[in-house]
Amino acid sequence: MTDNSAVHSPNSALHAWxxxxxxxxxxxxxxxxxxxxGQLIYLIxxxxxxxxxLMENLPLTAAAGGVLLLVVVFISWLKFxxxxxxxxxxxxxxxxxxxSKTHLDLPFHRIHNVKLEQPLFYRPGNHTCVLLDxxxxxxxxxxxxxxxxxxALSLKSAILQQATTPTVEISADNHQPGNPxxxxxxxxxxxxxxxxLIIHGVTSNRIWIFLGGLAPFFDNLFDWFADxxxxxxxxxxxxxxxxxxxxxxxxxxxxxxxxxxxxxLTLFSVLGAIISFYGYRLSRLHDRYICRxxxxxxxxxxxxxxxxxxxxxRQDWLDRxxxxxxxxxxxxxxxxxxxxxxxxxxxIIVPSITHGECEALLKDIYADxxxxxxxxxxxxxxxxxxxxxxxxxxxxxxxxxxxPQITAMLLTLLSLLVSCSLIYLxxxxxxxxxxxxxxxxxxxxxxxxxxxFALSKIQQSKFRQxxxxxxxxxxxxxxxxxxxxxxxxxxxxxxxxxxxNQGLFEVEAAKASWM
Amino acid sequence: MHSEHFxxxxxxxxxxxxxxxxxxxxxxxxxxxxxxxxSLFLFLLLITLVLTWQQWFSLPTLITSNLxxxxxxxTLTAAVLPPYWYAADxxxxxxxxxHDLSYRSGLLFISTVTxxxxxxxxxELKRGxxxxxxxxxxxxxxxxxxxxxxxxIPGLPLATAKGIRRFxxxxxxxxxxx
Lengths: 515, 178
Description:
heterodimer, A: alpha+beta, seven-stranded antiparallel sheet, globular, B: alpha+beta, PH-domain like, four-stranded antiparallel sheet, three-stranded antiparallel sheet
């Protein structure tokens, strides 16, 4: 598939320090501008207030914008100018930094993930940005900002070959009977059509989060909306006024407005799904999963099977209705340390697949995993009692405070009922199971999410028991993985100990690698 | 010390975390912590007294009228929290097995963290000025689980902390992984 000769052969040109292609300046500028505009979010209120003044002094504003652009291009040129990289047979070295100089020396075997990112402006010249993840923290992540695609693919191939040769790993994937993976060709495992992406956009519509974010601006938005409609001949306030209109018309207008609004937001969500997952293709080369997608910026995430930490099978309530599943493959997330929100990049998400496709993928990843079939044990009823008690006490306090007002009392009662129903749903969903090699956790609220990970991937365990749990032989267990921790509350302490003991045994006796 | 007794038997049976025998922290740790916590409350009480008696500037009525309440609240908290923390500190302990390190903490909510040595990314000894004077050290254990799950065993006698660190660093699993 790829031409390895560029990196494999003793190519003296690559051993010398190299400069990036000129197009990298656009990449630097684009990222710098994105950072600047990211910071500008905090200035939005000030800009809105000063909007009219900015408009009054349009030439000055444009000149300031021009100067800003020049500064950005100059800084980008400086970054470009001081950036040098070179490959040896098994090392990558990068020298960068304008004021503070950095020298990174990265052996290929330490690189555990190679990602290719192709923004829109890299396509005409067929360049790509190469991101190299190491097992250390995100500080050690290396980035070659622009490389010709062919060279990037050769480099990737060379790195992956280095990473696969020394692996004598006893990990969960070795338990399985084996996968037909020894061909040099990529095996296509899944492809998503536009139809699937539309379904994904609809089912993963985060309308409520968006509405929550907009809450402070509801008044302004409604005024703006009413003004816009009235200039087009619709008097929305009159249409929604029950004293001027029959009730059926008010209801119908309101319903139409709400449905239009929801449809509009769903459309945005669908657009988002198409932009992120356009041309989605999941394939496997030997034991490495490669996921490619993206309408504007093409992302390529590759993950060695042994680096996979946890499988997440996610279904929201709408997914359950139409029988679709989002499958997530999570690997080591070094960015947790930095608290950065780049978690997405390290995961492989297979959006809105059917049950059959999910089953086939799980079989390919972990042949002996029973995520879809195992019997899950419920957590103890006292989880329900404790949380309902907390909610009950809180609502009683509120009820005492608002006691003379009947409406407020009724609202408090309604809130109590809703909260108790949610707690019940949460309890009902929570379950766990354990077999010889894997831990399975089920949780959710309206939807159901299933988590599964190999015992050998456990980094740390935590056993918690309060004095009130002890007499009932209950405990909570947290199993920490390289992609974060998973907790199971209110389980029998015998089961909790069994989970921890078996996990520690698998890690310590079998000396299984987590990477 | 620990490394002198080091063996690396292959585990064949499932060891039980319930059977862990925890070693206590240095007795100085709980006492010093109690002293520090009481001093903090005493300092806060002194501030309320200074605010009451000072003549240099006038304070808003909201503050002056609530200074007695603040003193009452602080005294009550000082009577409850530091003794509770002292009792909790006395319960803290660690257990070192051939292949893992455990740390127990909590009085009403007891938690036991167990960290396999094979999964330790690195260990750090930390010593603040008071710990240095008392000859104590905290041992921080980092795993690939991220900062959220880093744990520290405080109040270890320096020699013990160094011994555990040496045990971890010289552990076969760590050496092989490097």
